[in-house]
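Appendix C reproduces, verbatim, an entry submitted by the partner laboratory led by Prof. M.T., so that reviewers can inspect both the input and the predicted structure.
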Amino acid sequence: MGSIRISVRGYPVHFHVYVQEPATKSKIDQLAVFLRRLPDQHLAVLYPIFVMARKPGGAMGGGTWRPSEVRSNFTGAGHVRNTGIPAQDVDAIAVRKNLGVIGLSLDRWRRPMGRLEFTLFHEIGHCVDYAFRPGGLVPSGATAVDFPGMETNRCGAGSMMVRRAAEAYARYMLRPHRIFHTQPGAMSAARANRRIIETLRRSAAFSSVPASWEPR
């Protein structure tokens, strides 16, 4: 257990690990390679990443909490017991600095590379969406048609449009040549991919990202 700070193109990314797992530093080093794919504008707003036993409510999975939600979700006695994170750490790392939290429960952290990075980047998508509100990752007027093949019923955060956008964001960053994960109906695969990218790039979250930027 402990805190590990890495630097990605000069931007600090903080991992705070509250589980005993082998090869934690190796996993973080591997994730750092993927984090380089983020644009500078999104690296600059990343919340600290907590690896914890369970989410505050006791469930497994990933989660992202805005600054206004951190104290109430993490510092109660039951939440401390579920997460394994001391309340004073939450206060020092996030609350006093007015930061949100990206969280991964132990079962998600145990996922192998090839799955773990998609889990983390989905939560980063929510972080970016929050940081660039109003608007976030969903452009004005966007509908499900703008995120073809992006059904995501496993995520419990926000509206279905925000869930689709966060999943699309993760896949755009990690697998930009095939973003959708279910066949997008009558639309061709190539057109579906372009539609998703065009939609994300119209969002407030990408308004300051240069048009020439690509995840690589």
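Residues 132-206 form one domain. Additional entries are available on request from the coordinating office.
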